[in-house]
Amino acid sequence: MPSDLPAQPRPARVVFYNDPKVRSIAYQLVLCTVVALLVYGAARNAIDNLARAQIASGFGFWNQTAGFDISQTLIEYSSRGSTYGRAFWVGLLNTLLVAGLGIVFATIIGFIVGISRLSSNWLLAKAAGGYVEIIRNLPLLLQLLFWYNAVLKALPDLRESIVIPGGLILNNRGFFLPLPVLKGGVGFFELSLLVGVGGAIAFYVWARKRQERTGQRPPVLAVTLLLVIGLPLAVFAIVGRPIGFEFPQAGRFNIAGGIEVLPEFVALLFGLSIYTAAFIAEVVRAGILAVSRGQSEAAYSLGLRPGPTQRLIVVPQAMRVIIPPLTSQYLNLTKNSSLAVAIGYPDLVQVFTGTVLNQTGQAVEVVAITMLVYLVISLVTSLLMNLYNRRMALVDR
Amino acid sequence: MKRFATLVALVLAATAQGVSAQTLKAVKDRGMLNCGANGTLAGFGLPDAQGKWAGLDVDFCRAIAAAVLNDANKVKYVPLSAKDRFTALQSGEIDVLARNTTWTSSRDTSLGLNFVGVNYYDGQGFMVRKSLKVNSALELAGASVCVQQGTTTELNLADYFGANKMQLKSVTFATANEAIKAYDAGRCDAYTTDASALYAERLRVTNPDDHVILPEIISKEPLGPVVRHGDDQWYDIVKWTLFAMIDAEELGISSKTFDEAMKSPNPEIKRFVGTEGNYGEQLGLTKDWAVRIIKQVGNYGESFERNVGMGSPLKIERGLNKLWTKGGIQYAPPIR
After folding, report:
1. Distance between CA atoms of A261 and A345, rounded to whole angstroms?
2. Which structural domain, as residue segments, surrounds residue B18?
3. Where would you tag: which of A38, A59, A381, B68 has the fewest CB atoms within 10 A of its CB?
4. pLDDT beyond 60 at B249
5. CA R_g for chain A
6. Closest by alpha carbon to B247, among B145, B326, B323, B315?
7. Rounded distance, CA A213 to CA A83, Å?
8. Rounded Cα–Cα distance for residues B208 and B195 (Å)
9. Whether residues B273 and B310 fall in one domain
10. HSE of B17 in the Cβ direction (CA atoms, 13 Å)?
């Protein structure tokens, strides 16, 4: 009978201050207010104390003349005509350069060493293992100093420079390369380069689709080489060689002209790459071990050799495990580049937090800006890596 | 980031409270003087193999400790590089900075610091290898020069080369140690710093005789001790410690002759040693404040000779640092 059915339970009516949702919002509001007050109070306190001690504050120093020289500048900079703000950008570009190249080299070396450690060749595996254990356990600063002194001592003095045919000079002041000088007609050459690279990418995408549909793979390598190298070379010759070279010349004291690669840059790049590669190798090894053995066994039973197995089956699956710790290693490398201070490479910390801070005396502003910059670089890197991670994630079907 | 700003501000606030106008009391309560020193520069501030500090700036800190605490050995030396010397003083970590620091207008104003005087009149010079056959700094166009970061040296170098339209490649390092090592390794052609430091650093290269110091002095570098803004009493004490050492040399009072000075009828000497007047009490110290300095440390001339002059490995001539009565420009106001 209908009256036998139990009555539907109704939600209990509570007083608003006992409602968990209301409470949680209230707590969060209170916490936010407290934090905001603390931050405001601290900032106010700092400003007042700086004013009382008569230490200059504010960001007016950004537009003052710098007055000092920087040994490596990727953009226009002069000691008399540039400001502290300009010096900041020079330092930042130097940091990005060494961090970017360091990430590329560290990844390549790390993957090679990580995969080698799992190789069935006993010598290779033990050598890779030794490399990882030694490099991981020595402080980075010591390694940087070692590379700097090793690089400097190994290179010959200016008077006995090694001259490589083609206009390259190597000595302990740096590695000097010919600088390409662009002459008229270079626009066509640049256009042909763009067209070649774009065409190669388009062809690669089309070739993959074709392979997925029909199983036949068009000759990607040959076509790519033709488009990326052959086409621009042809245009180069036709338009009349619009690129000249400025060769480095030995002056009384130094080499003038050409592109200069500082030994400090090389030492920092070596040190950072080799150090971080040891950590990346372990991350890669963990990722590969995480892929079930059945995958490679199935691949072998299909007739795939170990090389393509690794490349097409194992590593793509391992990437899901590898990418999050790999992101951390990239961020570590970027922040470790600030150790450039110890060997005289003009990165952001050396130029801005070193020289500019000391010349202006405004420690709070300069350090805050530097920390903000590193924070932004790290956040952008991890954002990009997370985007990549999401694309590689396992899709449950 | 927010937390770090809070922490920084709190630390600044906490330390800033304690430092203004109370330094004399703090030093007496602590029983030790915190002195910011160089740590790597022979002749100015360098600990020896037993850890005992010696140098012209070290003697100055010892003089302050003698005047205030009656014991020249009650000093704690904090070695500082050119980059962190000012923040250490601003934050209260040290009471006085005696680290061959050049007196400039921006440092005197925007850093919140006061220079008490000049204990060494210096200028910037260059050191090169003899094998380069360079006789003058004007021949250094296109050379690479090793220099320490965060110093007036760096700025003067760019100015000099710019003014003489010479191309410069400067290689900067965080500490003088690294800079001189790189110069020695051949990374750069020349090394530049204050002339007095050049003599000191030349002792540290592998072959001192292979290097020559060029004759040009390209800037004024008046080196002097520094204290914070806002503590006039401490500023006066430190300033008059320096003047007492110079006045003593002028009056002929040294660590060997102060016994005779105590009995001298010369009114200037009587005022100096404290038998007449209460100039010590006016500073907040004792009557015999100046005698303490001379007895335990010596006068300016003695300190100069044993640290950087002919009695030391540096063998620098007094030059501009002679007394005004002997042709130099060291001149101290009278104690009266």
Report:
1. 11
2. 2-121+222-326
3. A59
4. yes
5. 29
6. B323
7. 59
8. 15
9. yes
10. 6
Is B208 touching A (CB cutoff 8 A)? no
CB B67 within 8 Å of CB B61 = no
Residue type, A227: L
Please state the rounded mean pLDDT for residues B162-189. Answer: 87
B335 lies in some domain: no
Two tokens at A74? 């990727």
Q: Is the pLDDT of residue B112 over 60?
A: yes
- Comparing alpha-carbon positions, the chain B residue that sits nearest to A68 is B155
Asked whether residue B48 is assigned to any structural domain, the reply reads yes
pLDDT band at B14 (very low <50, low <70, confident <90, very high): very low
Amino acid at B36: G
Q: Which amino acid is at A210?
A: R
Residue range A343-350: mean pLDDT, rounded? 89
pLDDT value at A76 more than 90: no
User: How does DSSP assign A20-87, residue by residue?
Assistant: HHHHHHHHHHHHHHHHHHHHHHHHHHHHHHHHHTT---SSGGGGSB-----S--SS---TTT-BHHHH
Q: What is the DSSP string of B62-93?
A: HHHHHHHHS-TT-EEEEE--TTTHHHHHHHTS
pTM beyond 0.90, yes or no? no
ipTM entry = 0.71
Does B174 touch chain A if contact means CB atoms closer than 8 Å? yes
Q: Is A257 on the interface with B (CB under 8 A)?
A: no
- A43 has a chain B CB within 8 A of its CB: yes
Is residue B333 in a domain? no
Q: Do B4 and A371 touch (CB under 8 A)?
A: yes
Both B117 and B76 in one domain: the answer is: yes
Q: Which two tokens stand for residue A244?
A: 């000249």
DSSP string, B243-274: HHHHHHHHHT--TTTHHHHHT---HHHHHHHT
List the 332-351 stretch of A: residues with Cβ below 8 A of B. Answer: 341-344, 346, 350
- Indicate if the alpha-carbon torsion angle A256, A262, A263, A264 is positive or negative: positive
Tens digits of residue pLDDT in B190-232: 999 999 899 889 988 999 889 999 988 999 999 999 999 989 9
SS3 B124: strand
Q: How many CB atoms lie within 10 A of CB B291?
A: 23
Distance CA A305, CA A271 (A): 35
What CATH number does the domain containing B200 carry? 3.40.190.10
Give me the residue label for tokens 């420009």: B329
Q: Are strands A179-182 and A174-177 parallel, antiparallel or unpaired?
A: unpaired
CA distance A367 to A361: 11
| Residue A45 CB coordination number (10 Å) | 17
- CA B135/CA A19 separation, integer angstroms: 87
Domain boundary among B173, B192, B219: B219
